[in-house]
Amino acid sequence: MTVDPSTATADDNATVECPYCGSTDTEREHPKGPSLCRSMHFCADCQQPFERFH
Amino acid sequence: MTTNAPLDGGKACAYTDYESGDVPAEYPKTGADATGTEAEVWEALREVEDPEMPVSIVDLGLIYDVTVEDEQCTVEMTLTYTGCPARDILLNDVKCAAETARSVQDAEVRLRFTPEWTVNMVTEAGRDDLREFGLSV
C-alpha cells in the first residue's frame, strides 16, 4: 500500500533486517527518517519501529 | 503570495532516492597500514564520532586519506551526502583531532565527493556499532 507518492524509492523491494530481532518480515513506512541518511521501517515480528541507515 | 514551494509543483524533490553503489577496492580506508605520525592521526580520527550515532567516522568510511608532511597534516574526507547538516561540526572535529597528534602543527581538512560515499563503505565494526544503536544496515 502506498499512501504517499513520496514513499517510493529505488530500493523498494530490498530486504531489510530488523536490528532488534533479526527478522526480515519488515516494511518500510517512509523513506525519510530523522535525518536524510535514515528511513523509517516497522518489524512485523517484534512490533518495533526501527530505522535503516543508507 | 510569496512561497518557497518548488515552481514545478514539487517534482524536483518528491522523494529521496537511495541507491547502493559500488565501492572502489581501496575503500574504506582505515589507516591500518599507516605508520608514524599518520598512524597517530588515524588513531585520533577513530575517536571522532558521527554527531547522531555512536559510530566512528573512520568506521563509517568517511576518511579518504591522511598525509603528514613537515608537521602539516592534510585529511581528505567525504560526507554521507553533500547537504549533510553536520558538515561544519565534522570538519572542525576532524581538524581538532588531527592536531592532537604530537608532530602535527596544523591540520587542513579537504572535502571530497569522489568517490561517492555509499553505505557499502561502512566497515564491519561500523555495521556492528550501528546495529547495536538500533539501526538496520
What does this structure look like?
The complex is a heterodimer of chains A (54) and B (137). Chain A is globular, with a radius of gyration of 11 Å. In chain A, strands 1-2-3 form a three-stranded antiparallel β-sheet, with no helix packed on it. Chain A has no helices and three strands. Chain A is mostly beta strands and 54 residues long. Chain A starts with 25 loop residues before the first strand and ends with a strand. In chain A, a hairpin with a 5-residue loop joins strand 2 and strand 3. Chain B is globular and about 45 Å long. Chain B is α+β, with helices and mostly antiparallel strands. The N and C termini of chain B lie far apart (43 Å). Chain B is built from three helices and four strands. In chain B, strands 1-2-3 form a three-stranded mixed β-sheet, with helices on one face. Chains A and B meet through strand 2 and strand 3 of A and strand 4 of B. Strand 3 of chain A pairs parallel with strand 4 of chain B.
Number of helices of chain B: 3
Q: What's the overall geometry of chain A?
A: globular
Could you estimate the helical fraction of the residues of chain B in percent?
A: 10-25%
Main β-sheet of chain B, in a few words? 3 strands, mixed
- N-to-C terminal Cα separation of chain B, in Å? 43 Å
Q: Using only CA atoms, what is the Rg of chain A?
A: 11 Å
Distance between the termini of chain A: 22 Å
Mean pLDDT of chain A: 82
Structural classification of chain A? mainly beta
Low-pLDDT sequence parts of chain A? none
Largest β sheet strand count, sense and barrel closure of chain A: 3 strands, antiparallel
Count of runs of 4 or more consecutive helical residues of chain A: 0
Proportion of beta-strand residues of chain A: 25-35%
The number of E-state strands of chain A comes to 3
